[in-house]
Design a protein that fits this description.
2 copies of one chain form a homodimer. By secondary structure, chain A is α+β, with helices and mostly antiparallel strands. Chain A has a domain of 115 residues: Jelly Rolls (Sandwich), CATH 2.60.120.10. In chain A, strands 1-8-3-6 form a 4-stranded antiparallel β-sheet. In chain A, strands 2-7-4-5 form a 4-stranded antiparallel β-sheet. The longest helix of chain A has 25 residues. The first copy, chain A, is globular, with a radius of gyration of 18 Å. Chain A starts with a helix and ends with a helix. At the A-B interface, helix 3 and helix 5 of A face helix 3 and helix 5 of B. Chains A, B: This is Crp/Fnr family transcriptional regulator. Chains A, B: InterPro entries: cNMP-bd_CS, cNMP-bd_dom, cNMP-bd_dom_sf, RmlC-like_jellyroll.
Chain lengths: 189, 189
């Protein structure tokens, strides 16, 4: 089994050697280039992605061409254009590899097979989605009740890799603030 | 089994008569008064609530005393201060019954028993939480990429009961806009 995937699953689920092999063969490796688009807006997201190396971005594009970053998927994490993948409908968001990346792709139908055939997969997914949902609730809270300064301070504490590693433009639109405001906040910290 | 709960579970899970009885006895009925607080900010949410009649509100209170409505739970739906309930930690949000309500309460430990003992409960919860997570992603999208007018139009289309039934103050803070902006939008529609 791919070492990063094994590390991800360790502690979340107990797999027999046969199960490990079955799981491993469902995740298809792929290398992506910097800025490569994996899911276009309007397409259906056919896969969920596990990031071995690099970083993926899920983002919105307005009719005027403005982008807003909804979600970032770093090494050792899984993600996709979730509403599109789960309900197999056209995606509002696009998915892009913002660095040259190594990913493992699990298709929608293979995920159904894992849910059906691997004891404990359902539980692992339920627990994982609970925590993803909690993270999104906390992000909604930050939009409802915090200003740009507080949102930046929390991002710096919870996900410093976003601030350190990504272009200012992406950090700013992830926070829903302008690049000028971000520069001012960075200068103060 | 309570008729509303039976209706909620129909189509989501197949239960034997014995299972039905087991599930039913885990949901404890309670009547609440208008504006009664069920979970205080800083408490741990011990229950998830199924609303038979009425409406619950999950909301934030800033240090300055300003409220923002994070989530509304209407008849036939379940909800709570989710991050607090799932991780059994102090809640950032409070839960209030904004109308006199009839609710059924499932405790954290009884939920664990249902997950363990009722075949299909895990799957039902996983599928339910996926859809709740999708709804929260769509709300994040609305904050990232829409103005007040678009957010109001979508609320009117997706959840007209929120606009019709609740006080303007709650509708406005659910949308993250002022009451004045809401009045202007209502006048135009």
């Amino acid at each position: 089994m791919h070492a990063s995937l094994k590390q991800y699953l360790d502690g979340k689920i107990m797999l027999s050697p046969a199960d490990e092999e079955y799981v491993d063969c469902k995740f298809k490796p792929r290398s992506t280039k910097r800025n490569e688009i994996l899911v276009e807006k309007g397409d259906t997201a056919r896969h969920i992605y596990f990031v071995v190396k690099g970083c993926l971005r899920v983002f919105l594009i307005s009719d005027a061409g403005n982008e807003s970053t909804r979600f970032l998927i770093f090494e050792g994490r899984m993600g996709t254009a979730f509403p599109s993948f789960i309900n197999q409908r056209a995606s509002v968001a696009a998915v892009q590899s913002i660095e040259a990346s190594e990913i493992l792709m699990l298709s929608h139908s293979d995920r159904e097979l894992l849910l059906k055939n691997i004891l404990g997969w359902e539980r692992m997914e339920r627990v994982g989605i609970e925590q993803d949902y909690i993270a999104s609730i906390e992000r909604i809270e930050s939009f409802l009740s915090m200003d740009a300064k507080d949102r930046y301070a929390i991002l710096l504490r919870k996900s410093p890799e976003i601030v350190k590693r990504l272009p200012a433009k992406i950090v700013a639109d992830y926070l829903g603030i302008s690049q000028e405001t971000l520069s001012r906040l960075k200068a103060k910290n």
